[in-house]
Amino acid sequence: MQAIECKSQLLIENNSFFGEFSDCRMAANTDSLFQTPPYDKHPMVNTLGTLTAIVLAFSAFVAYKNKGEFVIQVAAVEKQNADKTVNTKTFNGLVDDIAKLEATQQEAIGKRDGLRAEVEKQTAANDAVQAEIDNKQKELDSTKNEVADAQEKLKELGDLEELAPKIERLQASIAELKGQVATLNTEIERLRGEKTSTGQVLVAAKTKQSQMTSGQSFPTMKTTIRSIDRRLGIVTLAAGIRSGVIGGSRVAVIRGGEKIAELNVKAVSANLATADVIQSSLQEGVDVAPGDIVIPVESATSGN
After folding, report:
1. Does residue 27 belong to any structural domain of this protein?
2. Residue 217 and residue 243: Cα distance in Å, rounded?
3. CA-based diameter of the chain, in Å?
4. Model-level pTM?
5. For residues 66 and 35, what is the distance between their CA atoms, to the nearest angstrom?
6. What is the pLDDT of residue 37?
7. Structural domain boundaries enclosing 245
8. How many helices (H) and strands (E) does the chain have?
9. For the segment 151-172, what is each residue's pLDDT rounded down to a tens digit?
């Protein structure tokens, strides 16, 4: 029996190691009468080695292709994670802004309730002043009647020389009553002035309360667009409730003296407000931009 000689060979292609296969050959017997080439005695060994090399080469090629696709997928996942981080930070910032706006809204509601209490207080004070005016008017009428009675009594007197002391007393009484009348007239005028002043305060407070509860921004409100978040569609105004911007109201965007769009105010703080663009109100080919003037829709409709 002849010994089989096996040698390991490396398969290298394009500077890459693809695998190892065995080259097994049977040494030729020089003593044999019939000389047979060593590769012809065991052809299956050579065939298996060749097939193994082909399989390893194909596996390496597939692995190389999959590696490229894997690198692309890893880059895509890293980009998605980066976008997720940015979106998370933006979302958290918006949540904080909404919380602040809600706190400001509660503050505005408290101020509105305070104004209601002030209106009720002013109404009670006005009623008290009116009651005092009515009382003073009754006293004035009574004094006038007393003066008229005194004058009638003077006319009914006979001899003035005999009744001179009475006349003097009556005249003094009349003079005193006239002084009281003048004093009452002055007091009535003062009370009327106070009533007018409290009435004006009451009207102003009622007007402000009506505007806050009607869902309309103040007619005198005028501001500009401070910034725009195009991705979220949020427009930030450079004014808040202190300038007359009311939550839930509709405002007009003015550019070049013309209305180009309308906004729906969503949330209001003391000095800022956020709103959404009413897409149906946008002029064709035009979009709102920072610096555009913002006024109440009612003012824009009336031509202000």
Report:
1. no
2. 9
3. 195
4. 0.38
5. 50
6. 52
7. 223-301
8. 4, 8
9. 777 666 555 566 667 777 778 8
